[in-house]
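We give the chain.
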Amino acid sequence: MTATPKPQDTLQTVLGKNGGRRRKFTWPLMLAVITIIGLTVWQPWSSGTAAKIVYETEPAVLGDLTVTVSATGNLQPINQVDVGSELSGTVDNVLVDDNARIRKGQVLATLDTAKLRDQITRSRAALASAEARVLQADATLAEVRANLLRFQDVSRLSGGKVPAKSEMASAEAAVKRASADLTSARANVTEAKAQVSSDETNLGKATIRSPIDGVVLARKIEPGQTVAASLQAPVLFSLAEDLSLMELQVDVDEADIGQVKEGQSARFTVDAWANRQFPAQIVRVGLGSQTKDGVVSYRTILRVNNDDFSLRPGMTATAEIIANERKGVLLIPNAALRFTPDLSAGKEASASLVSRLMPKPPSMGARKPRAAGKNGIPKVWVLGADNQPSALEVKTGATNGQLTEITDGGLKAGMAVIIDSTSAKK
């Protein structure tokens, strides 16, 4: 027979079963409540240690701006002449050496002239022979003309009966032939005179003379050396007209050629005088391009004074062409135009830890800083009274790669423009 449980026994039994279940769910709940309370208490402390943005600034200043274009090249004489020989032969004598100062018409060297003098003798003999043939032809012409006149007189006296018509025609033809021979002989004389003149000219060319006043840059022959001018004139001397005035030939890159113009000033240095700058001026900017190693450049000529002869042909020079000069203008660093503050950094710093731990929507990608405001107008950032950046739209002018001219806008001299920012813990 089954005993009926008492009411208190039934309650204890139920409590015993459910009480264990309650203990199982109580600890996770208590842990969650403690975590929430801890985060709430820690939030003010964590916000106090948030990253602080420190801005690096530079003042806008009034100053001078010089825009330059760099180029390299070589120094050359304004007029360099290579003196050669039109004749083949043996060098008989060399009268000048390297660095010798010379005058126009001065004898530099001579070739052996024995064969040339013999040729002149032969041509003069041929001229004498041609002149003799002229005398012979002239005498023959006089003779046949006299014979023709006699035939004409006889015909007039005989009433045309004698001489015969064939004899009269023969006499007239003889006069014409004699006249033609005389003309040919005279032409031969002219040709012979030309040959004499040509041989005498060649004799003169055997003496090598300077065509200019200047200096000998290079001497390329020695006495006894054979000169062969059958295909092209060999170079015997290299002469420079005036080394007190030289030119610097530089190659300007295609990216810079738009800033280079005739008449601009420049300065350059050479390795021989590393601590000295030489002035120059652009006299010609080439229109034709040249390509070397895939780089397109344009030949530009600068005029250089070399009164002390410290510069020499062939020296390598590095030139700085003054493309633009601005005096007393408002200048800022180029970094100020590239800077854009991260305005979301302060919001992230002030956000609670809970919100930062919450899942966020996927990022659309980092945005690149923009140096221009609305409608592409450049802007700079300055620090306000609350130490917060504020934007100012400006209008830019010339730049040299480090500083930029500000021509218009709200920026004034002395105002601090932001060029960079860093984060630091409070």
